[in-house]
Design brief:
5 strands; mainly beta; globular; single chain; 1 helix
Length: about 100
């Protein structure tokens, strides 16, 4: 995907998502510092920092939701310079993580 295509995709993301919005996403990758999510927008990743995954004591990767699981999160930041959406876990009762 070239720069112009990525910018066009990012413009669609900014129109669709707002800070504070609840979104559903699928876990696609674990890292030591958090998880990456597919929010259904192609190459624009959603990211949840490890500090926003659990209210409990730090548990490392074993406390992450499994790859492939659908989760809910709240949009915290839309970073155009990185084309990334930062999320935190949903505080809705029954949230998957």
């Amino acid at each position: 995907m070239n720069f112009e295509e990525r910018q066009n995709l990012w413009e669609k993301v900014v129109l669709k998502y707002k800070v504070g919005q609840l979104v559903k996403a699928k876990v696609v990758r674990h890292e030591n510092f958090g998880v990456f999510l597919d929010i259904g927008e192609g190459l624009i990743p959603g990211y949840v920092d490890i500090l926003n995954i659990s209210d409990e004591e730090f548990r490392g990767r074993s406390g992450f939701p499994p790859i492939g699981q659908e989760v809910e999160g709240i949009v915290l930041i839309l970073r155009n310079y990185k084309a990334e959406i930062s999320l935190k876990k949903s505080h809705i009762e029954g949230a998957p993580f």
